[in-house]
Amino acid sequence: MPILNEAACVNELIDRLTRACPGARLIFVDNGSTDGTPDLLAKRGIDTIRHATNEGYGKSLRDGIAAGTRPLVMTIDADLEYPPEAAPLLLEALAKSPVVYGSRFLTGAPDMSLPRRAGNRALTAAFNLVCGQAVTDLYTGVKIFRREVFDGVTFHESGFDFVVEFAVHAARRCRIAEIPMEYHARARGTSKMRHIPDGVRALASLLKYQLRAAA
Fold first, then answer.
1. Domain extents for the chain?
2. Whether residue 215 has pLDDT greater than 50
3. Distance CA 3, CA 77 (A)
4. Model pLDDT, residue 62
5. 146 DSSP β-pair partners
6. For all residues of the chain together, what is the average pLDDT?
7. Given 3-state DSSP classes, what are the helix, strand and coil percentages for the chain, each rounded to the nearest 5?
8. Cβ(95)–Cβ(103) under 8 Å?
9. Is 127 exposed, middle or buried (0-12, 13-18, 19+ CB in 10 A)?
10. By the 8 A CB rule, do 147 and 70 touch?
11. 91, 76, 98: which is closest to 29 by C-alpha?
12. pTM (2 d.p.)
């Protein structure tokens, strides 16, 4: 779990994840929090990787994935916009594909602004066109995958464009599956994504990785 300044909800997140995923190893990557989040994680005895400064959403995911050793990996944003209780459903869906996304758009119009919805749909459509996939929510904050799918892959992106890098590598290896995912806009804290500049970088990354693959 990448986390940044989520002291208001981190204890609830840990409690719900523990109930939903008994026996799972929880790994948080704190991306330079200044609100006491690392102290709360330490009090709970949670495995935590600490970045002294904000190194980016993608770098947090990269470090967390690298720190794990188990064959199945689930990533979920720490803001409680996605229900941790969906973990068993994601696990079941691995029978369809070794990479599964939780889609906010398979449950109807998600609780987000119209510009955000339109931007996500445009980026998702571009990804599907370029990579031959049929996903509905490229920028979902919750997914599960088999670690072996990415054997030999070295990830490089540190920002939100990691989402595109991950998806492009997944698309080369399998058909990405999706399940419907509940989504409720955060009630506490603030979003860390800057939607317009991050969207532009996402498109640039999509072209970069596909051109690199074709070379």
1. 2-214
2. no
3. 7
4. 97
5. 72
6. 90
7. 40, 15, 40
8. no
9. buried
10. yes
11. 76
12. 0.88
pLDDT digits (tens, 9 = 90+) for 9-63: 999 999 999 999 999 999 999 999 999 999 999 999 999 999 999 999 999 999 9
The amino acid at residue 197 is P
Query: Which residue is listed with tokens 């799918």?
Result: 149
Residues in the chain: 215
Instruction: Spell out the alpha helix ranges (H) of the chain.
Output: 10-20, 37-43, 57-67, 87-93, 114-131, 162-171, 195-214
Whose tokens are 């947090």? That residue is 60
What percentage of the chain has pLDDT greater than the value 90?
77
CA distances from 154 to 63, 91, 157, 162, 164 (A): 12, 24, 10, 12, 14
Dihedral-angle region of residue 195 (phi above 0 means left; psi in -120 to 50 means alpha; beta otherwise): alpha
36 by DSSP, 3-state: which? coil
β-pair partners for 73: 145
* Residue 7: CB atoms within 10 Å: 18
Q: Which strands sit side by side in the sheet containing 177-180, from one edge to the other?
A: 72-76, 142-146, 99-103, 177-180
CATH 3.30.420.40 at 2-214, yes or no: no
Rounded to the nearest 5 degrees, what angle is found at the Cα of 107, between the Cα atoms of 106 and 112? 100
